[in-house]
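Bump. Still looking for Glycine betaine/proline transport system substrate-binding protein structure tokens.
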Amino acid sequence: MKPIFIAIPLLIASSLAQADNSCGKVTIADMNWSSASLIANIDRFILEKGYGCEAELVPGDTMPTGTAMIEKGEPDIAPEMWSNSMKDALDKGVAEKRLRFAGQSLSDGGEEGFWVPQYMVDKDPSLATIEGVIKSAAMFKHPEDPEKSAFYGCPAGWNCQISSGNLFTALKLKDKGFDLIDPGSGAGLSGSIAKAYARQEPWFGYYWAPTAVLGKYKMVKVDFGSGVDKEEFINCSSKEDCLEPKVTMYPPSLVQTLTTESFAARSPAAYEYLSKRSFKNEKMNELLAWMEDNQADGDVAMEYYLTNNKDNWMTWVPADVAEKVQKALDNL
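Sorry for the wait, here they are.
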């Protein structure tokens, strides 16, 4: 009987060790926009193949996913959460130990600004500044009124219409001959950039990143010379009732990976991976452009990214995990 009694503690210890290292079932929010879907698929593959998780993608969107994680404790992971959109609720969830922020999905944050094409700045570096743009206002031909210069704003009904309009006012662009053009839709705005690029013509307007458009068309964000006044932007520039907006660059939007506290506690190794997994906007712009050009969904783009960017993703995980993920890639 003695060998049996010796074996029992060994079995228990082995079982506990496996439980400590086990990731278990994990649900990941697959948000309904391309960058978030790509990141969700990358997380699914790495957690499944590298950490032994039973990973499942579930449909998600910012507000419903954040609310469900706070109230129901699921899904376990929201890979790309634009935190400012429900900041108070998320901060409360963290304070109550329901949620945990793992890290930044986009290391640069969500990026907004007024832009001009790279080819214009290559010819005249002053166009990277608002002073240079204003000085050369006559270059930016209005599509309908030859007496005015064109500034393409954010489409009507979008939140960014408020901030882009207020900053247009703060910069006194109307006094400099510019007309604020409503492109009518996101497609209309991106189409105006594509048209300008095809003809190598001047273009000046609002846009944001990460997007496929800024992956396809190299643009330069115009420097207002003001720096970022976050309080001004939050309290006035982004408000519809802002009567006297002041000049400020757009502050970056916080884009984070959110997990439930229960997931972070039970799967520390997987949580550590999520805390390191991050993308620069320039890289994400390129990936989104590739997805659009190849009509690729998040799953296809995941394989493309992991295959062609080993120098990036291998820094997020230990060597033994990287080896497992690479082996799984080789077998696809």
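The chain has a mean pLDDT of 92.

Edit: fixed formatting.
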